[in-house]
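lol forgot to send this yesterday, sorry. struct tokens for the thing we talked abt
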């Protein structure tokens, strides 16, 4: 099966990202809202720096995860051919896997150590979308079922780029609720503001990438009812990219050193808030 040359969607979109961030920043000057946080120089610089760094790290990690995914694809006898008319179906399949990957990265601490980077800003604007992990190798396992079913990994990667591009515009406070049928099916700024909030009623909600219907189906949806407070339940007081990228891994190592070996699996695989003093806390 000969595949088309899929364009690097995210790389080609960088000029669009820059333009939209500039427009959003200017909008705060002409239409200020005292309740909205807007842009902070250090915070935005950190987010953009994390995004630029992730581009290089993703290439490195992609060598290993790409080989693993390609191995699964080569071993399966199944093959699902690509056709442009079927692209929406591939996008839906990739988005379904993304939902479970995203959910897993919130409820498994070892995975959260990678994803926490994206939630570490107390602002919520388009630059926040660029605050990406430098350990992006943790999610590939959630897409292995697609390879096992015969979906070429290049197709999944292309759909992943479209998914990431879609999610850029939903990181904003400048857009209120949208057309109700659209809000019911698709992820929107309102839904994603809930996802980035640190209030207890909003924690671990709205994992969807393009579609919010997965959250409605699997019980993780929450509407935006009160103004979100962005960031972590325990915020980090730093703009140092290295600390932002690896602070949770350091915290895990500290916990492993002071806990018994028998508690290590729970420390790594249960939720970020788990401790031996709270053994019944659900994942």
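and heres what i got for the seq, position by position
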């Amino acid at each position: 099966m000969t595949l088309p040359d899929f364009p690097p969607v995210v790389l080609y979109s960088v000029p669009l990202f820059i333009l939209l961030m500039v427009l959003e920043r200017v909008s705060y000057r002409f239409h200020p809202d005292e309740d909205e946080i807007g842009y902070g120089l250090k915070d935005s610089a950190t987010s953009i720096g994390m995004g630029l760094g992730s581009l290089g790290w993703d290439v490195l990690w992609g060598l290993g995860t790409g080989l693993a995914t390609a191995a699964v694809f080569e071993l399966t006898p199944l093959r699902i051919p690509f056709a442009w008319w079927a692209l929406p179906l591939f996008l839906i399949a990739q988005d379904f896997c993304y939902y479970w990957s995203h959910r897993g990265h919130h409820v498994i601490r070892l995975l959260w150590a990678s994803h926490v980077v994206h939630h570490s800003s107390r602002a919520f604007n388009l630059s926040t979308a660029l605050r990406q992990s430098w350990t992006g190798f943790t999610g590939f396992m959630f897409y292995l079922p697609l390879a096992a079913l015969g979906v070429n990994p290049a197709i999944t990667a292309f759909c992943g780029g479209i998914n990431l591009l879609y999610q850029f515009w939903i990181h904003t406070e400048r857009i209120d609720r949208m057309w109700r049928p659209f809000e019911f099916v698709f992820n929107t700024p309102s839904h994603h503001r809930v996802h980035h909030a640190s209030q207890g009623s909003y924690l671990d909600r709205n994992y969807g990438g393009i579609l919010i219907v997965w959250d409605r189906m699997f019980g993780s949806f929450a509407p935006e009812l009160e103004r979100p407070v962005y960031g972590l339940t325990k915020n980090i007081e730093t703009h140092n990219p290295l600390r932002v990228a690896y602070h949770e891994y350091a915290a895990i190592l500290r916990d492993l050193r002071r806990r018994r070996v028998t508690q290590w699996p729970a420390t790594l695989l249960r939720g970020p808030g788990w401790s031996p003093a709270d053994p019944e806390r659900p994942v």
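The chain has one domain: 9-78+88-269. anyway ping me if u want another try
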